[in-house]
Design goal:
Length: about 375
């Protein structure tokens, strides 16, 4: 049972950091895998804890705006509507696409504009479970061009943990994922050149090799972990995925280029000129510059080839611009909060009356895709 001073008896479960602390005595479950909910019972418990303990809100008095990953299945939207209307009895629900909210947040924070006609660009959204590349034109997602890769924050955490296990670092088994995540967030960065980075570490190990100090949760015994090549090899998975897995080998910049090239030709210039980042896994040092450099190289190669094929044409190379902004880590949340604050957005919400009349199928269609 949970401690009464921490939790109510009928909510004997923990989420987030609380769950990490209680890990030795509880079963741990990740209800979201690769950006998709696969355990709806635990997801409902998660929402209960968020609404009642953290938001301290009465769900029957508030309209709820929730987000979904691109290409989310209609069944998942149905389950979400069913939980929100049946369990929490909310008066209204709107399910928004994360990429559009992230792009809105980027535009608002960099230009101060809220016009949907200006919401055009490419979103690289990388969180814990999955990375999406989503093209958005005038506020609408081009659904047929979306691509995703099964590489994100958790993949890098697993890679760091694998490196620590291989070296035999003295980390308690039940803490290795948490330690790996902390190392990833505190010390990892993107290197411009893999070979040069290896040479730097070999020539000046005292300067580049670090140490992480922690303590066993059970015994309180301290331990020290050496941090080496995984500092730059972790984020390198985005640019050389074959380091960790043979299932997927297309680098992230190549995938972004494929997405934009699949879009209508008159939209490509704007999609290249405004590529925005969203999510915690895009926060690594030099990540923005590496994406921009590799993508510019791809665009230049194509431009030079076209110049050779059509020497008489006046061809101009497309500018590649990768944008970073203050709300990059929480871009989806910030975009959602700005959208929910608009006076007219409430007209787009599915109401409880709609749900009672038509059932959960009202959430099967997404207004963003429906408007294309």
């Amino acid at each position: 049972m949970a401690d009464k001073k921490d939790d109510a008896e009928d909510l004997d479960f923990f989420i987030g950091n609380d769950a990490t602390v209680k890990r030795p005595n509880y079963n741990v479950d990740y209800p979201i895998r690769d950006g998709v909910v696969n355990n709806w019972d635990n997801m409902e418990k998660y929402l209960q804890r968020c609404i009642y303990q953290h938001l301290r809100a009465d769900p029957e008095e508030h309209y709820f705006l929730m987000t979904e990953p691109p290409l989310n299945s209609p069944e998942n939207r149905e389950y979400t509507a069913e939980i929100m209307f049946e369990t929490f009895n909310v008066p209204g629900l709107y399910i928004a696409v994360q990429a559009v909210l992230a792009l809105c947040a980027s535009k608002i924070s960099t230009k101060g504009s809220r016009s949907t006609s200006e919401v055009t660009g490419t979103v690289i959204d990388s969180g814990d479970g999955v990375t999406h590349i989503v093209p958005v034109v005038s506020g609408y997602v081009i659904g047929s061009c979306i691509k995703h890769i099964p590489l994100a924050g958790r993949t890098i955490t697993d890679f760091v943990a694998e490196q620590l296990r291989a070296r035999g670092e003295p980390v308690p088994p039940d803490q290795i994922l948490d330690v790996s995540r902390r190392i990833k967030e505190m010390h990892c960065y993107v290197s411009p050149d893999l070979v040069k980075e290896y040479n730097k570490y070999d020539q000046q190990p005292d300067k580049f090799f670090l140490q992480y100090e922690g303590a066993d949760i059970k015994t309180k015994k301290p331990f020290t972990v050496d941090i080496g090549y995984e500092r730059f090899l972790g984020p390198e998975l985005f640019f050389n995925p074959e380091i960790f897995s043979s299932d997927f080998s297309t680098p992230l910049p190549d995938l972004v280029d494929q997405v934009i090239q699949a879009c209508p030709i008159d939209t490509r210039k704007n999609l290249y000129s405004y590529i925005t980042l969203s999510g915690g896994s895009t926060m690594y040092k030099n990540f923005t510059r590496r994406i921009e450099r590799d993508l510019t190289k791809k665009v230049k190669e194509r431009h030079d080839k076209n110049v050779q094929l059509f020497p008489d044409m006046d061809l101009k190379m497309m500018d590649v611009n990768v944008v970073t902004h203050a709300f990059q880590r929480f871009a989806v949340w910030f975009g959602g909060s700005m959208l929910a604050a608009q006076p007219d957005v409430i007209k787009s919400f599915h109401t409880r009356a709609d749900y009672q009349e038509h059932g959960p199928r009202i959430a099967r269609t997404n207004p963003v895709f429906q408007s294309l």
